[in-house]
Input
Amino acid sequence: MDVILFLIFAVVAVVCGINVVVQSHPISSAISLIGVMASLAVLYLLLGAEFLAAAQVIVYAGAIMVLFVFVIMLLNAGAETRRGRSFMAQLLGVPLLIAFLGLMAFFVQRLFPGAGDVHFGAFRGGTALAVGRALFTQFLLPFEVVSVLILIAILGAVVLARKELE
Amino acid sequence: MNFFLLSLIKAVVVAFVLLTTLAYLQWVERKVIAHIQVRLGPSRVGPHGLLQPLADVIKLITKEDLIPPHVNKFLFLAAPFFAITMALLSISVIPFGPDFHAFGGDTWMQLTDLNIGVLFVLAVSSMGVYGIAIAGWASNNKYSLLGGLRSSAQMISYELPLSLAVAAPLLLSNTLSLRGLVDHQTGYYLGFIPRWNVFQTPMPQIFSFIIFLIAAFAETNRIPFDLPEAENELVAGYHTEYSSMKFAAFFMAEYSNMVTVCAMTTTLFLGGWLPLWPAAAGSSFVPAVVFLGAGLIALYHGLNPARRRDRLTLPVVAVVFFGLALLFLIPAVQSVLLPLFWFAAKTGGLLFLFIWIRGTLPRFRYDQLMAFAWKVMFPIAVVNLLVTGLLVAVLS
Output
């Protein structure tokens, strides 16, 4: 059951991911991206990280992508016009992609040689309780640093968006 | 596959009850609004217009399903489907009652109890905005687009106070499971004040209850926050170009969101299926008394009819009410029906509030809407959350 669900949602995630790049209209790309994020949330859920799955949907699919869609709708961006691709891109695109993927696989193999197979349902540390405990004990400093960083970003956005006072 | 069969039965029952509620909620709304405005409301189809929802369904199904030539066809078709799916999905984690023993089986009156139930509802409701936004965009119509834009801006803004208002009772209950939330609200202070989250010590959640309710009005696009479909500015907003069942899908999604949000408020703040006062003080007889009273009123008006047909219809209604009152007096059935009665009564009361406010308040202006969310509700929600957190940390 887990494997079947994994295969379904992995395929959906990959297809949506390719669709983000292939689609010429920004709204279609944005919706494909929502598809990627939603299927990723299901994959997290299958791995036992239920809090992360919910956060993924609420934050990424539900908040950030709404803003993306909102901006695209507000600017009323039309479909991009396809220009002729350069000769080099046509010639080297696919081989370079394969080389890059091979390199990635090689490094993952080298850096994490002990990583075994994934067992669905074996991980039990994904509850809200476990995540909260880890954030507020083991990773307290990074957590606080991130919140200060986000606060600075908000202040920066407010300063940039503020009307100039004469 | 006993589990599978049981889940299937529960899903069918819940879906049937929910869809019937949606259909009749619309009838109740039209009747209540009509009486607020000193009109009669639907009264032609069946006695007191009771068959009006059925007539509406037939009308909507048989209407011509137009797809305008200038729309983005795929997204135009996908949007209502998405909206209704997300709206119906969140009912699956709402608990309607406690343990249920029947036919040698034992189950909960809830489709499924997730340990991230509250987050699940928030996630599904945050996805619901896409249905409206995409519908507005795909219609390729300036009124629809403006409606979609307004709705996404409004939903993003009001989701913040909503989530903060949800977080405060979670601090008191220490769980994310909706059933756990209700279990934590069992019991009474001084023997008669229920330990619901609105009255819960150390910090009664009355502020977060009010903020949640206001934000819920905005999230469901109801008056006074119905700017996405403001008919005197935007024709019909995001569903201007929709007809037939696709229009009905948006309509049902709105009512379904209303039901869900009222059920969530009941679960989070009003103690779910728990009675208002202890059973020792006679709360088990409330439904019987209520139905008996309703039956007597119907009988009185049937015997002194204002119109001729009331002489026949109202006594029938009275008999139905008397039957319900008798049902609530049978001990074996009582234990099952009582929690459902309290849950339905609280949710129904909140739904009535939604309708009442629709008949009372005018619509906000757009800048007022945004200023209210960011300058009033958000600070109050943050302060409430901080005070609750502090009190919970100090006193526990």
Summary: The interface with chain A takes residues 72, 75, 114-116, 119-120, 122-123, 126-127, 129-130, 133-134, 136-137, 145, 148-149, 152-153, 155-156, 159, 176 of chain B (CB under 8 Å). Residues 36 and 101 of chain B are 43 Å apart (CA to CA). The two ends of chain B are 44 Å apart (CA to CA). The longest helix of chain B spans residues 2-36.
